[in-house]
Amino acid sequence: MFYRLAGIRHTSYAADRALWPAPVDRVQIAALLLFALAAPFLLPNLYLTSYLLPWIIWSTAALGLNLLMGWAGQIHLGYAAVMAIGAYGAIHLVRAGVPFEIAIILGGLLSAAIGLVFGFAALRVKGLYLAISTLAMQYLVDWIISHVPAISGGSQATLQAPAFRVFGIPIADDRARYYVALAICLMVTAFLLNVGRTSFGRALAAVREKDFAAAVIGVNPYRYKLLAFWCSSLLGGVAGAVLAFCYYRAVTPEQFDLDVSIQAVAMVIVGGMASVIGSYLGAALVLLAPIVLNNLVGALAHALGLPLSADVLSHIPLILYGGLIIGFLLIEPLGLAKVYDNLRNYFLVWPFRHARR
Amino acid sequence: MRKTTITYAALAALYAASIVPAAAQDKAPIKIGTALDFTTVYTFVTAEYSQGQRDYAALINARGGILGHPIEISVVDTGNQPQRGIAAYERFKEEGAVLCDFLSTPVSRAVVPRALADGMNVITMFHGRSDAADGKVFPTIFPMTPAYWSQATSIIKYIDDQEKGDLKGKKIALVMIDSPFGREPLPVFQELAKRLGYEFQSFPYPSPGNEQSAAWTQVRRFKPDWTILWGAGGGQSVSVRDAIGNGIATDHLASVIWISETDTNIIGADQTKGLLRFEGVAYGKTLPAIEAIEEQVVAKGKGAGPADKVGGTYYNIGAASIALVAEGARIALNKEGEPLTPAKLKNGLESIKDFTGEGLLPPVTITADDHQGGGRGRIDAWDGSKWVPKSQWAAAYQDIVWDLIHKSAEEFKASGK
Amino acid sequence: MSYLAELAANGALVGLMYALTALGIVLVFKTSGVANLAQGALAMVGGYVMWWFAAALGAPLWLAIPLSLVVMFGVGRGIERVALRRMVGQPVIMIIMLTLGVEILLRGAAPALWGAVVKRLDIGIAQQPIVLGDILINRAYFWGGLVALLLIGLSLLFFTSRQGVVLRAVADDQAASWAVGIRVERAIGLSWGLAGVAAACAGILWGSVQGVDWTLSLLLIKALAVAILGGLDSIGGVLVAGIAVGVLENVIPGYVDPLVGGGTRDLVAATVILLTILVRPFGLFGREDIERV
Hints:
By secondary structure, chain A is mainly alpha-helical. Chain A has helices at residues 13-16, 23-42, 45-71, 79-95, 100-124, 127-147, 149-152, 174-195, 199-209, 211-216, 221-248, 258-271, 276-304, 310-331, 336-349; strands at residues 159-160, 164-166, 169-171, 250-251.
């Protein structure tokens, strides 16, 4: 009843190939877009800067990692290192006077180049060994960043993000920063929505399923694996730069350590691999769950008058975060995207319960 | 599907209930937001520190609050992650806090630009940016305690006094954790080596410090006269144990402030007799402030944690932090009247003069230029069951310290606020 | 020269202690093909359990140690039963993520249950180092190394016993093992239990050196380096690789640190992993059946 798919006919190839052929989907997307654009005027500042902004930036990062893990089927446990390279690169470039738009792209290219080096491990090994070698590279990059003062900014080891302009408009307040982050997120989302329909995306899918079979039909797995690493690292570098400029406004090495890498992988897996909406949902859950759980547990303890020590209370979000990951993997390995899909299918045939699709 | 819907609805209602503000009280509470690291790097200090803070606030409230206003402390965990610290900071701001505390160098560094832009006060007791002592560049950041550079000078001064003023030719070793925190005092030690003539060498060990034998092997070969430890947390007990194992006498072994009775008991209370450390807040239960807390808070069962931690090193630091804030609030309310805003609290904190917190602190004076409060500390030694002061409250070589502070603050100002 | 010898000797002993944790990883991988990235967290839980028995409940050492080993055997089997059994056949990234989730869960649960402040664990090893001429050897490392050697030897012996042959069969081909009537689930559960015991020993030994708190779970990266270098399915390899990694980790920073300004120790484990995977992915003694591109 809500998702009336009946009666939709297309009269041109373009209409048939549209991303969202059903009008109700288009309306949904339009509404979300309108809300995203109007958010600074609708939401109080707290929700804008502490919840919406990091969610958008982390969705961008999760989308970049999803390209590599979901579409190309590789494992990357060092994504935070790639983001760090983009962040530090962009900050140094803007401090040296390069305009922000160019600095972000250059930062992305820098992390793409170094991420490509990570990718060479993928040419040698697969699966578990690839995961462990990316893990080792995460440690390497971490070490290099914190031990080279030229990169990390001296013994205080914090670099402030300088004031910047985008196309001449000074970005000085929360709203402007939000719009910059939103613009980049929309661009990355548009790219990822379409990548599956391009030859690049189809080649990645072939490599993901069985790389030697892909080689047999003429898709060069070496080339496409490296391309996937390059592309995903570019997106990661851009996301890292946006994170540094729009959210943290300063970079320290701790912001991009192993825990953050694991967080990024959790976002992709909990959200659902090879799914754009999954990246958004996964980022929301992993990012906001600790904060929400913290509040919830504190309120519960207060309300029930339980004498829980601060020690226990502060560790409960960590326990719940770990439990969340385990729970999702055991119960719904396909992630939140599948949950959303189930929900959508339910409403597709509502009020009927079963129908052929 | 129904069961899950009901569960979601219940959870949502509970969550909504948790963000409803508390009922209005007679006088508006003074809200302090503490977003501390209970779970990762600062676990060695946070639980006791927070307990001290809450107990001291309970003491003030038991005495009638600050001119009738109760103090309300909200406690949140950040896991040493800057993004959670930033989110907590924004929430504290929305809830009307007048002061925030993060007890974490990375988190406080990430929040400093925002706090300066918003005019929100942040205290950084014994950690964080040492250059925040420069009140002109950092108007709302209050270390109120000796910066790491001042701690380094105090330790050297003590060593100098023990060697009767003649350090020429003596060897001093610094064994530090290989991180920005560990490397921070290097300029001070090197400058003082030039002035006083001792031979100085640094021996870093890798973070987190659970394996240091390589560094101590080198220290043993260096044959130092004095060894200084610069670490925090679990690595400290490993340092002291390796030092003893390599033949360093405990009374020639001095540590930065982050070592406590927990560490000495882990190694062995008797083996560590004579161990020296820098102290910025007095230790023990025989201080008027701690005795008042025991009487009015702990005895009435309102303590925020185990009673055997009252009077401990980190507990007293937490209590001192709230003592200073309360004093600043009191001065602000007296001078400028209600309601208390962050700007008024800033002025109040900058008017603190010779405040000792009922025995917790040396006389602390904070001005608009000097947020360090004087940089006074003393050295105390472990006697097998408690820490005993070995010198008087004094500040040392503050000219070197302020040189470094001004230089670093200038860099911050230039590099883009 | 004695400088090098001291670094090498202490390093070898520390490496053997890393090998204890790596032993758990190898045991699990050998039998079920799962890389247990929660091994560091298991070692931490082992340390906490031992502290609980010895310090909080006041049991004497001869009782506390066996009790902790038994409890950790159960914990290992429990994790396998609850979490891993449902993931059989799933893509490897899911299993890796699951073990990472277990690691995070344990890292939160252990300090929550027993307190986050670092705790003292005294297993009766004296402080004074063992003196061999000009070389000082840390006594705790010495005993740790001995225990590690003992356990590795026991494991090697175990794999020649009847139950060990069962485990080897399961490691070789699970379907064929089912076909001849071997209870594969029980065998895998047993290997996880043994991994729990190895983790407990590692946790107890390291806990006595550095105190028991959540940082014990950071043993993971060193144990991974040892396991990869030795070969993920070779127990003898764990011994050799442990000594190698330990020696390298102690000796290299001893000479390179003054040149670079410190901190090269962290690099060693990561570099060992990278070089091994790029040059000889299956390690020194591992079986050569990794799918390569």
